[in-house]
Write a structure and sequence with these properties.
With 377 residues, the chain is α/β, with parallel strands linked by helices. It is 32% helix and 24% strand. The chain is built from 10 helices and 17 strands. The strands form 4 sheets. The protein has a 6-stranded mixed sheet with strand order 4-3-2-1-13-14, covered by helices on one side. Helix 2 links the parallel strand 2 and strand 3. Helix 5 packs parallel to helix 6 and helix 8 runs antiparallel to helix 9. The longest helix has 24 residues.
Length: 377
């Protein structure tokens, strides 16, 4: 029974400039580890081959070191690899692939599908029909020639392509690099391995996107997996199983805080995350001064525990309660300042001024907090 591993969208060489240097470096390293994990997975499950459906590299200009490290990471699987150029690493006349060849970095068991055609792997029982991108964007279906490509009758016909299945993906990406939704039928394919959509997605029983093996953005689209495909013989229905390869989980939460229980529930959810988490928070609503201090302390703990935590609090207003003000003992002039800052958040038309007033109120509350309260915490 031929069995192979389907993966795509490694985006090697990608950088994470929005993160701190330490966190960005860890996220980069996780992508190399993902290749090693999927190679080990293919070995463990005795896969005949690994098919990579485009965007191995994030850009044509990645460093020589990145190129060498990518191919070094494939050593964990001794069987054949078939790698397809995608829109980020298209097979241009001069490309990342020609550089890799000049460097002598490509192992002998890695087959580069730089031209439209068939890669026959008779020992593995597979014929791979490839539709590489030779430019970043095309407006014709590069998988159309599959119907005319002949393959030995005893080998599985496996298509390998990178693009957008028309009519079945979100409108914003359903444009360039089109792929017909019925390509497995018109080309008599046993399976069509696709890349470009970064999460696991089944189009039909013979057409799948594997997604990226390591998440790299905040999208809830089942990223962080590879697919292992079993097909008993030509014409049989594929048995597809997904296997997790992600090191980090990415979470993007948009929360509105209105009452104290909203904050308590949020902090419980944060505390329940696995340590290998990347969390992006954006908060709106209102908080008491006590709640704001509680949030600040909880975020400080989370920043030390998780890979990365960012929190946009610009949409929050601080609403001191009578108890807040009493605890601050802000009488006289200080009481007037507290009240003025409180009102400035609500009446100003400039977001920047509201943010300054909110931050000033938080800082003032921290300075005025009774020393015995700090000790008690």
């Amino acid at each position: 029974m031929p069995k192979f591993l389907h993966t795509a969208d490694w985006q090697m060489g990608r950088t994470y400039s929005r993160f701190d240097a330490e966190d960005g470096a860890a996220l980069v390293e996780a992508r190399y580890e993902a290749i090693e994990r999927l190679a080990a997975l293919a070995t463990e499950h005795q896969c005949a081959a690994i098919l990579v459906a485009g965007d191995v590299f994030d850009a044509q200009t990645v460093s020589d070191r990145t190129i060498r490290r990518v191919f070094n990471a494939t050593r964990g699987f001794a069987g054949p690899w078939v790698m397809l150029p995608g829109n980020h690493d298209a097979a241009l006349a001069e490309s990342v692939w020609t550089r890799a060849k000049r460097l002598g970095a490509i192992p002998s068991n890695v087959h580069l599908a730089l031209e439209s055609g068939v890669t026959c792997l008779p020992e593995q029982g597979i014929a791979v029909l490839s539709a590489p991108l030779t430019q970043r964007h095309t407006y014709g279906d590069l998988t159309q020639p599959f119907a005319e490509m002949g393959t030995p009758p005893d080998l599985l016909r496996i298509g390998l392509a990178h693009g957008s299945v028309q009519g079945l993906l979100p409108d914003e990406i359903d444009s360039t690099n089109p792929i017909a939704p019925d390509r497995t039928t018109t080309a008599n394919l046993d399976y069509l391995a696709l890349g470009d959509w970064h999460g696991v997605k089944q189009i039909n029983e013979r057409t799948w996107y594997s997604g990226t093996p390591e998440p790299e953005r905040f999208r809830n689209n089942d990223a962080g997996y590879v697919l292992i495909v079993d097909i008993e013989n030509p014409g049989a229905t594929p048995q597809v199983s997904r296997h997790e390869t992600a090191r980090y989980q990415w979470h993007q939460w948009r929360e509105t805080l209105s009452v104290p229980s909203d904050l308590n529930e949020l902090l419980i959810r944060i505390g329940q995350l696995p340590e290998a988490s990347v969390l992006d928070l954006k908060l709106t609503g209102t908080l008491t001064l006590a709640g704001d201090q509680k949030l600040t302390e909880a975020l400080s703990v989370a920043e030390a525990r998780y890979r990365s935590v960012t929190c946009d609090r610009s949409g929050l207003q601080l609403e001191p309660t009578e108890d807040d003000i009493a605890e601050l003992r802000a009488d006289g002039y200080l009481g007037e300042v507290v009240q003025e800052l409180r009102e400035s958040q609500q009446t100003t038309e400039e977001d920047e001024e509201a943010a300054v007033a909110r931050d000033a109120l938080g800082i003032l509350a921290g300075l005025l907090k009774p020393k015995d309260a700090e000790v008690a915490q």
